[in-house]
Amino acid sequence: MISKNSKNAWYFLNQGLTAVYYNQYKKAISKFNKSLVLEPENTVAQLHKGTTLYKMEEYRNAIVCFDIILSFDPKNLDALYNKGLTLDKIRKYPEAISCFKKTLEIDSKYISSLTALGICLSKIGDNEEALKMVDKVLLDNPNDSGALYGKSLILGRLGRGAESILFINKAIDEDSRQSDLLYEEGQRLGIQRKYEEAIKFHTKAIEKNNRNAKALVAKGWILDFAGFPNKDIFVFYDKALKINPRCTEALMNKGLVFDKTGLYKKAIECFDRILEYEPRNVRATYSKGISLFSLKKFGAAKFYCEYALEIEPRNVMALCSMVWLLEHSKKYNEALAYCNKALEIDQGYVYALSYKGKLLSRLKNYEEAIKWYDRALELEPDNQTAIYHKNKASEELEKKNRDSFVKKITKF
């Protein structure tokens, strides 16, 4: 029977793991510590605490964690391997080599240790032996990127420059391929709204290739969706923009975050940067219009929203930007006309279905409004905006019916 303490320990452990994927390392350490207070010999929590400290570059504290595990379990491969990596970081190469050799005595096919051992041997000048180690890995798996990187480093130290470049290029290509696969899996999970699982894959994609701009943008978007502050989100968009200054998705998402948080001028700067090289980008065009409206530049706002529809008349999001603009200008009938156009193009567009309900409510046609909210909720039952406004419309309808009944009574 699993004790209550054990259940709670694993609860905190899982919270810590989630925090790691969201780059909240200090929070993760706090959760792992709570787990270890409840279950001091939980080697999994101790291992993840150590690897998180390693990511934070707190190498000596990380080693303490791995040593605690090894005091319970001297043959723990993960603790030995990670201790070796950490010792390597603080240039204690002989101790690191000892850790890697111990893992291989326990499991001769521990591939990661073979590669790490080879690289470490090279750092102390034993390049010929180092080359043998990474070649063993590549014999079984010619596409192992870690071994390819290792071989490139060793060949470089041996003065074999042309071969070194060949292997570094192979390693980069392999990491890019694997990173793209991880990103695609993250996107698939994101479409299914499994965001916590998706961010794990995007994080792994970035670890494989820190120049994967698509994965950086995707991770930034999930952090935004989860309600993280701008500074935590922008880290990823800005990294993507360093890789590619014309990364449209990074600029677009950054602009939308600025707009959402009331920084409209900064939002427009992002949209303008896109429009410099993509002057007919519909999304940047109508988004600029929305931000201009929020700055009370109504004429310019309408111009950009209308121009977006000149570029692409059947773009439902551009049509709905006009709905938003006209509704906020209290031109409800005009807004309704654009909303109907959007629904002619896409009858299942939930935003437009819900917005039609809102416009009909504004026009005091509450019964009809409720029908459109119901259509939206059939497709998206947890749509909080539709639920809220439907309840408001229902309250107004009840009040209207009650007032009408009172008027009838008072006539007699």
Q: Identify the CATH homologous superfamily of one domain.
A: Tetratricopeptide repeat domain
Q: Please mark out the parts with pLDDT under 50 across 5 or more consecutive residues, or reply none.
A: none
CA-CA gap between termini? 75 Å
How much of the sequence is in beta strands?
Answer: under 5%
Second rung of CATH, namely the architecture of one domain: Alpha Horseshoe
| Major beta-sheet overview | none
Structural class: mainly alpha
Q: How much helix, percentage-wise, in residues?
A: over 70%
**Mean pLDDT score:** 93
Radius of gyration: 29 Å
Shape: elongated
Annotation field: number of helices = 22
- At the fold tier of CATH, the topology name of one domain is Serine Threonine Protein Phosphatase 5, Tetratricopeptide repeat
Order of H and E elements: HHHHHHHHHHHHHHHHHHHHHH
Give a short overview.
This protein is mainly alpha-helical.
